Amino acid sequence: VQLQASGGGLVQSGGSLRLSCTASERITNSYSVAWFRQAPGREREFVGAAWRTSGNAFYSESVKGRFTISRDNAKNTVYLQMDSLKPEDTAVYYCAAGPVILSAVRDARSYSRWGQGTQVTVSS
User: Fold this and answer.
1) Which of 71, 74, 88, 118 could be cross-linked to 8 through a Cys-Cys bond (beta carbons 3.0 to 4.6 Å apart)?
2) What is the DSSP string of 81-119?
3) CB 79 within 8 A of CB 86
4) Whole-number percent of the chain with pLDDT over 90
5) Residue 45: predicted pLDDT
6) What are phi and psi of 14, to 5 degrees?
7) Computed over its alpha carbons, how large is the radius of gyration of the chain?
8) What is the model's pLDDT at position 73?
9) At CA 24, angle to CA 46 and CA 97, rounded to 5?
């Protein structure tokens, strides 16, 4: 399965963006889909994940309450709704998918499929 991330752009602080991660085929129920981000000079960090098809989602503390992950299985797409954006959210955002175990959902090494990144820039 190939992943395509889109929806990035330039937004002012406090604004919103919605990222999309579209798969080339149906994402199997055993796959979780996650979002990671990487800012210049920093390591890739976990943002959030939709755990398989359970509807459960996990978020990093830095985005909890501001970002929301949703999954549209009919469209083979996972969304990342980002509200109340801050300049520190500026990064390249990547989506990833894989048959991860629950304890490793925040670990980038657990994911076998990656999309290309989409740039999010938040101006102050």
Assistant:
1) 118
2) EE-S--GGG-EEEEEEEE---GGGTT-GGG--EEPPPEE
3) no
4) 84
5) 97
6) 90, -10
7) 13
8) 85
9) 25
Q: Rounded to whole angstroms, how far apart are CA atoms 124 and 43?
A: 23
User: Quick one: DSSP state of residue 24?
Assistant: S
Q: Find tokens 């919605």 and name the residue.
A: 18
Dump pLDDT digits (tens) for 70-124.
988 899 999 999 999 999 999 999 999 999 998 999 999 999 999 999 999 999 9
CB neighbourhood size of 119 (10 A) = 11
> 1 CB contacts (<8 Å, ≥6 apart)?
23, 24, 25, 27, 31, 97, 113
Which SS3 state, helix, strand or coil, does residue 82 take? Answer: strand
